[in-house]
């Protein structure tokens, strides 16, 4: 009977779950991580229902950016990968949708779009930097959050850089992607940052770009 409900009743469902989850996180420390995970999901659900009731016409990246910002304090409070992993997905999705919105909704990169994609690359790498072991004392992020963030960042940069090979000329995105993924690989070779999973992901990205570059040339 969802279709028969009014807009306020529809919004009350995710809002109520969000409120109960927030109260549970405050009242029961043992339930804090699970309750905050539910609250983080309800934030997105509430945004969707509000968007259906009151169409705002905002771009998708604005929705994901606000969701990312609201989940960040929850992740810092939970200090668990259960929050940091979805937060990384949200942050990288924000970077991707932002770049699409600011390049005329074109997926094929052009030389004049390089500044936009460069900013998107930096945004995509932020979750990887936030979840580094050196920051774990503050964030509480664990190994799986760090690995997920690194893999998402490498994939985001790699696919855009590969797109730079598909035009008549090699777009500068290819070289920028090569440098950025190479930087991640170089950082992971340091003893205090070494992680075989992240290094393998960076090596895969470099392999795809280098092989693609040789074929394209």
Rounded to the nearest angstrom, the radius of gyration is: 20 Å
Give the strand content. under 5%
Encode the helix/strand succession as letters: HHHHHHHHH
For the biggest sheet, the summary is: none
* DSSP summary: helix tally: 9
Q: Which stretches of 5+ consecutive residues score pLDDT under 50?
A: none
Helix content: over 70%
**Structural class by secondary-structure content:** mainly alpha
Give the termini separation: 59 Å
Note the overall shape.
Answer: flat
Could you report the average pLDDT, rounded to the nearest whole number? 87
**Count of beta strands:** 0
Please outline what is shown here:
With 217 residues, the protein is mostly helical. The chain has helices at residues 7-27, 32-53, 60-78, 81-101, 114-130, 136-139, 143-163, 172-188, 196-216.
Architecture overview:
By secondary structure, the protein is an all-alpha fold. The protein contains 9 helices and no strands. The termini are far apart. The mean pLDDT is 87.
Q: What labels would you give this structure?
A:
single chain; 217 residues; mainly alpha; 9 helices; 75% helix; 0% strand
Topology, element by element:
Blueprint: H1 7-27, H2 32-53, H3 60-78, H4 81-101, H5 114-130, H6 136-139, H7 143-163, H8 172-188, H9 196-216
